[in-house]
Predict the structure.
Amino acid sequence: MSTFTVGRTRLEKISAVEGIETAPASRTMFAEFDRRRLSHEERRAAILRKHAAKA
């Protein structure tokens, strides 16, 4: 099985064609992840914590 990962910029372009936009809060969150240089695992954990709190 092979996998293909789409980066944030490319995903935003694909989503725009479908009429989907990244929310400003999400853009801020991703910028903060970049600023803090979080690993992929740390990013996933932060997103899970954020959404688990809403459930």
Q: What stands out?
A: The chain has a mean pLDDT of 90. The chain has one domain: 8-52. Residues 8 and 37 are 15 Å apart (CA to CA).
